[in-house]
């Protein structure tokens, strides 16, 4: 019977599976299930189940050991080298997977804080990649002047970046809210809402900080309706605060 296909996000929702994937990515050669089980202090059978899930998600491959002696060869595991697809959807999935893999096992900060910081950097990078000097020059002048024009410039950039990521945003400038009617990470958000929401909050802060102006992302309300989330914005008195390194994300309300 063919193995059931597993979502990459679902596979990476487990800290043990993320740790296994990190080990395989960092290893210079394929590893056996026994070596992996010993490395993460799990039972061999449990480790094998996690590896089967990663294989189903296309993140890990399994192949028999090449040997010249008699006997049944061991099965060895390797991380799959992902092909870089330039399509927007694939790039978004790859980036989220990278953040999830990198976020676990951080000694200095919790996964949610690491996710928010990674999201901030992602949002800033997305904005930098989208910069068009001919278009953004007036926007930056408006941001320097402050006021309503700067706020609108920030809102416009945020809506554009969230739309590119697939969130189907709808901006409410009067109430300083962004309603998102689709989550491209919905399955993962159901299992690990604190991580996904921290990434999204960080992305929003990174975009707003890159443009410059009086607005920052303050709070994310997750699942206020079926696949409907609301990002609440706030004005900051000190623009330098907005441009500084992001602080820990406020817990998402569900």
Describe what you observe in this structure:
The chain is of the alpha+beta class. It has 2 domains: 8-79, Arc Repressor Mutant, subunit A (Orthogonal Bundle), CATH 1.10.10.10; 88-243, 2-Layer Sandwich (Muramoyl-pentapeptide Carboxypeptidase, domain 2). The protein has helices spanning 8-11, 15-26, 33-40, 44-56, 88-103, 111-130, 133-145, 148-165, 186-191, 193-211, 239-243; strands at residues 31-32, 60-64, 75-79, 169-172, 177-180, 215-225, 228-235. The protein has a 4-stranded antiparallel beta sheet with strand order 4-5-7-6, covered by helices on one side. Strand 4 (169-172) and strand 5 form a beta hairpin. Helix 5 runs antiparallel to helix 6.
Described by its quaternary structure, the protein is single chain
Order of SSEs, N→C?
A: HHEHHEEHHHHEEHHEEH
Q: Could you give the order of strands across the largest sheet?
A: 4-5-7-6
- What is the CATH C level class of the largest domain, in words? Alpha Beta
Instruction: Output the CATH topology of the largest domain.
Output: Muramoyl-pentapeptide Carboxypeptidase, domain 2
Query: How far is it from the N-terminal to the C-terminal residue, by CA?
Result: 39 Å
| Structural shape | elongated
- Overall tally of structural domains: 2
